[in-house]
Inverse folding.
DNA sequence: GTAGGGTTAG
């Protein structure tokens, strides 16, 4: 019952059912924690986790995974260390290590990562494809792209996540051509790219400055029934904009079936700065101001465009605005971590 | 009685 509710996203119903249960076994606690994890509710997951009297490996795994997949790598590693400590002393398994490796690459902590690799050997955890993929991601994020590719090459079965990880890895390591080649290999292998894969491949086309090919890829994405997110549009606007095709970029934004976020307009604004275009620059900037009034970078960009074309008074006025906004931040609580 | 934990972006 709980898992059924969790699967269709009815987490409150699952909780009601859970609360009404006279006796809760391990599985029900784990189902509830992973349900909160999937819906991004770290606090409720943690609350439940610490209500458990006797915690086993699977419960630790559920909570560590919750931290890791919700971008709390430090807390994931903290709990992992707690698990290894003498007063808990539970030996991790493949599942634990996959989540911890992910936390590690989120932090870009290669030293802890290589320690984990030898630790795995020490306690006899065999490197399966999931673990190799997580390790691949770590190496790629830390700049060891050759080591990442070695691991990729050694996979028993290259699946969607493996290809996507490697494509993203080539992308962040400045190897767009390798990313593009791998994407083609993936399509040939009949593995269907998802939204994340397209983020990687479109970024690669962008970095390689391959406008036509990138545009074609974006179109084929939609033909394959994958609906681009605002992030994908932002990449496309950047690609077209950097090539000086500002009007096309603008039209792409206007034709979006979803609301463009500030990053989309910001990409156009940046392109307008590169090409000293006031016309679209003003439109892009106005949208950025409306969407994110507190981000001063947008005001500066427009000010720089004005300066480029000799409109000093307009530039000055905007720079004054930036100063005022900067000052206004000081008495506030902008340095308090938001969560 | 039944239900569970892994890897990819932002």
């Amino acid at each position: 019952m709980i898992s059924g509710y969790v699967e269709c996203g009815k987490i409150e119903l699952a909780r009601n059912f859970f609360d009404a249960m006279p006796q809760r076994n391990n599985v029900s606690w784990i189902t509830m924690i992973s349900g909160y994890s999937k819906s991004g509710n770290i606090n409720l997951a943690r609350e439940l986790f610490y209500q458990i009297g006797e915690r086993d490996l699977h419960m630790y795994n559920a909570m560590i995974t919750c931290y890791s997949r919700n971008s709390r790598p430090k807390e994931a590693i903290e709990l992992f260390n707690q698990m290894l400590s003498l007063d808990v002393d539970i030996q991790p398994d493949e599942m634990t290590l996959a989540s911890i490796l992910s936390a590690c690459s989120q932090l870009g902590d290669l030293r802890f990562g290589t320690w984990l690799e030898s630790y795995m050997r020490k306690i006899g955890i065999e490197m399966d494809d999931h673990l190799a993929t997580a390790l691949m991601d770590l190496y790629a994020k830390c700049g060891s792209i050759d080591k990442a590719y070695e691991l990729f090459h050694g996979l028993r079965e290259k699946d969607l996540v493996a290809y996507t990880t490697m494509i993203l890895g080539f992308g962040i390591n400045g190897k767009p051509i390798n990313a593009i080649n791998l994407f083609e290999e993936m399509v040939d292998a009949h593995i269907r790219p998802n939204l994340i894969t397209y983020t990687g491949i479109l970024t690669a086309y962008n970095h390689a400055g391959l406008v036509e090919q990138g545009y074609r890829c974006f179109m084929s994405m939609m033909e394959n029934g994958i609906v681009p997110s605002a992030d994908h549009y932002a990449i496309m606007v950047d690609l077209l904009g950097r090539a000086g095709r500002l009007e096309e970029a603008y039209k792409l934004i206007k034709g979006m079936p979803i609301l463009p976020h500030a990053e989309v307009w910001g990409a156009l604004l940046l392109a307008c700065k590169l090409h000293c275009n006031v016309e679209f620059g003003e439109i892009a900037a106005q949208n950025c101001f409306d969407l994110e009034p507190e981000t001063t970078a947008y005001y500066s960009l427009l000010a720089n465009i004005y300066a480029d074309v000799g409109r000093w008074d307009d530039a000055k006025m905007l720079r004054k605005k930036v100063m005022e906004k900067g000052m206004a931040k000081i008495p506030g609580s902008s340095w308090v971590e938001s969560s």
About this structure: Chain A has a mean pLDDT of 93. The first helix of chain A runs from residue 2 to 7.
